[in-house]
Amino acid sequence: MERSTLQAINAARAARRAAVVVTDLSDGTSQVFPEGAKFPPEWDSVIVQALRSGRAGITAVEERSLFINVHLPPPRIVAIGAVHISQALAGLAAVAGFDMVIIDPRTAFATTERFGNVELLAEWPEDILSSRPLDRYTALAALTHDPKIDDYPIRAALEAGCFYVGALGSRKTHATRVERLTQAGVPAEAIGRIKAPIGLDIGAASPAEIAVAVLAEIIEALRRRDPAARAGGAR
């Protein structure tokens, strides 16, 4: 691998951005395309598919044999709320290959006794996210039912372009949430990205079942996301 190629990959990794390396197998030359960069239009479908799947492979484009290798940041889940759903979701997330962090300023809930080795931050989301910002490879699950805790990270997730933003609550609760976000200046298009009620509609009832529904919805969003999408919203 050429030094310049490795440097470009490392730069993308440090910034938690994806990078696609396209190698022409006829002569061995490679080009690196960070996610969001322009690339030949005839390569559009293969690069987009690589960014969605995270899988490398050989493909033929206009009689050229290309090896497409993709480097994706590790996907992560940020759960707002040290609740029963978060407990179940933490175990499932690890099995599915997601890093996870739980943020909840309520110290009565955010205890190591309840969450074991999961990264648990007993602080306000606005304090944590200022130094550990969200990004396009983060899924945000707001689970406290408390707008004083949930609203800020939801707005931050929309602005950062997180691939998934979900919020616990009934349709009535979400309607009230939409009013608050609208008054805060969040565009309607951004608000429309929020998955609420959170999780796929599988008839989930228990916290563990809701966690399964949430993780399934997160995986669906990750694999079907639009790599060309841009961040948007307002804080």
UniProtKB/TrEMBL annotation:
Signal peptide: none annotated. It comes from the Bacteria. Residues 78-218 form the XdhC Rossmann domain. InterPro entries: MoCofactor_Util/Proc, XdhC_Rossmann_dom. This is XdhC family protein.
